[in-house]
Amino acid sequence: MSLHIEQRESEGIVILDLKGPLTSGHGDLELRDRLSVLHQSGNINIVLNLKDVSHIDSTGLGTLVFGLARLRQASGKLALANVNRAHLKLFLLTELAITFEFFNDEHDAVDSFFPDRELKRFDILEFVQQHEGDGNSM
């Protein structure tokens, strides 16, 4: 199965709905290419909806870091919405959780592009504390 990417827009912000694996040979190049095309066309504020991403490996993480770096260089931003809790553990283990902005849903992610709106960020510390309290270690 390969990664399927659907593109839409909300309030001028590009939203990419990702479905399937974000892994080496299964989506990393598709996403990298899509982010490059968007960047070249002047779309530098992007939300990635990860709700239906089935798996992320180190190559997939690298693709996300590449996209984030490229957009930041252009004074843009990449927001991650609906991150699967199992995938969030991967971001925590690799210490990339401090690099990305996570949001519970795409509405909150879109709001993050507008400085006059109240932000509802995903609370990573709360997530860690819940799992430590459950006896689940990172």
Describe the structure.
The chain is built from five helices and five strands; from the N terminus they run E-E-H-E-H-E-H-E-H-H. It is of the alpha/beta class. Strands 1-2-3-4-5 form a five-stranded mixed sheet. Strand 2, helix 1 and strand 3 form a beta-alpha-beta unit. Helix 1 runs parallel beside helix 2. The chain starts with a strand and ends in a 5-residue tail after the last helix.
Tags for this entry?
138 residues; alpha/beta; Transcription Regulator spoIIAA; five-stranded mixed beta sheet; 5 helices; 39% helix
CATH class: Alpha Beta
How many β-strand runs? 5
Name the beta content range.
25-35%
Cα separation of the termini? 28 Å
CATH H-level superfamily title: STAS domain
- The CATH architecture is 2-Layer Sandwich
Q: Strand order across the biggest sheet?
A: 1-2-3-4-5
SS field, number of helical segments: 5
What is the 3D form? globular
Low-confidence stretches: none
Q: How would a crystallographer describe the biggest sheet? A: 5 strands, mixed
H/E topology pattern: EEHEHEHEHH
- What integer is the average pLDDT? 88
Whole-number tally of structural domains? 1
Judged by helices, strands and strand pairing, the structural class is: alpha/beta
Q: How much helix, percentage-wise, in residues?
A: 25-40%
Please tell me how large the radius of gyration is: 15 Å
Output the CATH topology: Transcription Regulator spoIIAA
Concise structural overview:
This protein has five helices and five strands; from the N terminus they run ββαβαβαβαα. The protein is α/β, with parallel strands linked by helices.
